[in-house]
Amino acid sequence: MNLPFPILASCALVLLSLPALAAGPMSRFEFELESGRIASTFTNARAVCDELTSNSKDICVEEARAVQAVAHAELAFRRSGHLSDAAAIPVVRAEAEYAVARERCDEQVGADKARCLADAKATQTSALAKAKAGAGGSVAQTPVDTRRDADYQRAVAKCEAMASDTRSHCLTAARKKAGKT
Description:
By secondary structure, this protein is mainly alpha-helical. 83% of the residues lie in helices and 0% in strands. The protein has helices at residues 5-23, 28-50, 54-80, 83-105, 110-134, 143-160, 164-178. The longest helix has 27 residues, at 54-80. The chain starts with a helix and ends with a helix. The model has no long low-confidence stretch (mean pLDDT 79).
């Protein structure tokens, strides 16, 4: 089992932070200590990334940034205990996952890259809708509508890569399936 360092680091950070989540708000000393741990984890992950080249290095750096951003959001919640900070965690996680997915799409070209970016955006949109719905906020669209819109965007990106006659049939079918007549 050969997992990238940022994934292992994030798992370790989550496991280390579980007891602190149950303890309630933390002192300033604990906060600074945890901030230092997050910074050192990021620095170590960044050092591992520096050994890589080209897009794999970019992906590694983006994964390290994602782990750092999520860890900071969780730390902010643990320090304050406010529901608004708790609601920010899934949003930060969705944004971080989108940034990593976007970086992974850079390896591809042409229609494959467009499809990959559309998939990444659809996943982000869905995750943000779930985060807002889970936070108890009012969401204009239901998750089903959001998922349907994301599927429609994905289908349109796929259709755009086709020849003109086939493209028009594909777009018509996608509109019909999504209920956009």
